[in-house]
Amino acid sequence: MLIDFETAVNELRKAENVLVLTHANPDGDTLGSGFALVRILRQLGKKARLLNNEEIPKKFSYLYEDLKQEDFREETVIGVDIADRVLLGKETEEKYGDRVNLDIDHHGTNRLFAEKTYVEADSASCCEIIFLLAKALGITIDKGIADCLYTGCSTDTGCFRYSNVTERTHKIAAELLSFGADHAAINVKMFETKSFSLIKLQTMALEQLELHFDGRVSFLTVTRKMLDETGARDDEIDALVALSRQIEGVQVGVTFKEKPDGVFKASVRTHEGINAADICSAFSGGGHERAAGCSFSVPIEQAKSRMLSELQKYFQEG
Amino acid sequence: MLIDFETAVNELRKAENVLVLTHANPDGDTLGSGFALVRILRQLGKKARLLNNEEIPKKFSYLYEDLKQEDFREETVIGVDIADRVLLGKETEEKYGDRVNLDIDHHGTNRLFAEKTYVEADSASCCEIIFLLAKALGITIDKGIADCLYTGCSTDTGCFRYSNVTERTHKIAAELLSFGADHAAINVKMFETKSFSLIKLQTMALEQLELHFDGRVSFLTVTRKMLDETGARDDEIDALVALSRQIEGVQVGVTFKEKPDGVFKASVRTHEGINAADICSAFSGGGHERAAGCSFSVPIEQAKSRMLSELQKYFQEG
């Protein structure tokens, strides 16, 4: 059931012993939202903790390292930035997929899997929504919360670069800086640090760059072999995904990443006028207008040819 | 002579038949400030034009393409974002170096070469200052002005990424979006478009990457030969300059770029705790704490060894 902002605020007020869920392959927005929510709920005198459904990349440690562990039997389960229960990851989905009481999200493709869902599809990040909820709850936005929320505001907008940024995004960022968010250090961690391994991987991937539709579409591929050879980590690939769309003339950049189980995850990035979520929905994926994803459980060449057919259809219809 | 904000506003009110100067190798901040100022002065009923002291990179054409040419004999000369008269470029310096009536700048290293100088060294961009002056002058910030000012706010902060960003920067960005700044399209042009040539140049430069001081210092080199071989343009090198500091463990990134006259321009980028302007001042250069530049009229190996000696001193003293 879709709920409005006031109801979401009341749900948070009523919540007790809260387990907060993020999506799998957690990014800055789901983690920033999740840890901010834990901090907000604790400030309201409640018990709250985040379920780490898989290892959180080390670069995000500043989001939680000052938080004490809390052990309790969960009564309320809240998801943040989760458009679909399958995005919880297999294990978490099995355990909590049909037990999410409240989902707070900014994906227009949200499948309303939770008991109650608050969605703002035009919000640049889930952290923007959590910021507004925090203000409505009347809590003090301390440095810890500000760092968490700034992280999502920054990472989900390519550091205020993308078309999802609104006047509100910058106003909230200004407030978060005034509340002590360590913006420069966070951006260095999120955007300004590339390992040698990543630089090697990037060079390797660019050597095998494929262009289609007269250079309007780029395909980058990252296999397990390339990750093994360069020593680059899965969570470093975001920089490459961004690059797929940055090549002059490219309107759709697709990065195919081989997961450890052999599935290829396609990250689709588009420029204005092309809807990435629409393209990915053909493969049961989803996301936003400019950034979306889907998965292929077939060999890479088949995955590519399916994506090409879909793009062909999309270009013909559009 | 240093002047205060009110005096700067009055100088702009008094100015007639204004020639606006930018620095040579113009970037988004000097051009955004310059064209915004031309638009502001015209709105006040004055004649104003920008002196294009060298070819403006094509990607900036949206800053001025709707502006009509105006021909008049200049009475007032105003510089924007110019820390030193030598930065005007040889030809412009000869003609106007001692005739600048007002300089509006955000470099702490400003040499006060103008008759009157208004400097805010803690402003992230010169465009932030022009924005405040525009408001004080009571003009309407239209889309044209908003696009110009957003350009400087974004480019001089690495799109709101760097430590020079303040609460004010985001507040101004929010206002500029409300005034119609086409932020997403501007950021695509400024940050999201890499030519194939640049990608080739980047790969080539990274293959020759030098690390010094246990990986704390990186040296990238771009020669005319590399530019010729890849077809990359001088004005595309900024992306590479940013990369010099993004390598894990690197605190000081230096990019040596060979200019057509054989001079090597060094762009120095630092992380917190290391002052790039201090380092460059040893070579009569200057800039900001995290981003500065200087020039070497000696062969590249000598330039590198001089820079290494200076860094050695800097690390020992610091």
**How would you write the strand order of the largest sheet of chain A?**
6-7-8-9-11-10
Please report which band the strand proportion of chain A falls in: under 5%, 5-15%, 15-25%, 25-35%, 35-45% or over 45%.
15-25%
* Biggest chain-to-chain interface with counts: A-B, 40 and 40 residues
Task: Give the overall shape of chain A, derived from the CA principal axes.
Answer: globular
Q: What's the order of the H and E elements of chain A?
A: HEHEEHEEHHHHHEEHHEEHEEH
Taking the sheet with the most strands of chain A, its summary is: 6 strands, mixed
Number of helices of chain A: 12
Low-confidence stretches of chain A: none
State the gist of this model:
Chain A has 318 residues and is α/β, with parallel strands linked by helices.
Characterise the protein shown here.
2 copies of one chain form a homodimer. Chain A is of the alpha/beta class and 318 residues long. Helix content of chain A is 41%, strand content 16%. The first copy, chain A, has a 6-stranded mixed beta sheet with strand order 6-7-8-9-11-10, with helices on both faces. The first copy, chain A, has a 5-stranded parallel beta sheet with strand order 2-1-3-4-5, covered by helices on one side. In chain A, a hairpin with a 4-residue loop joins strand 6 (210-212) and strand 7 (217-222).
Key terms:
alpha/beta; 11 strands; 5-stranded parallel beta sheet; homodimer; 12 helices; 6-stranded mixed beta sheet
List the helices and strands and how they pair.
The structure is a homodimer.
Chain A: H1 5-14, E1 18-21, H2 28-43, E2 48-51, E3 76-80, H3 90-96, E4 102-105, E5 116-119, H4 126-137, H5 143-155, H6 167-178, H7 183-191, H8 196-207, E6 210-212, E7 217-222, H9 224-230, H10 238-246, E8 252-258, E9 264-270, H11 276-281, E10 286-287, E11 291-296, H12 300-317
Parallel strand pairs in A: 1-2, 1-3, 3-4, 4-5, 7-8
Antiparallel strand pairs in A: 6-7, 8-9, 9-11, 10-11
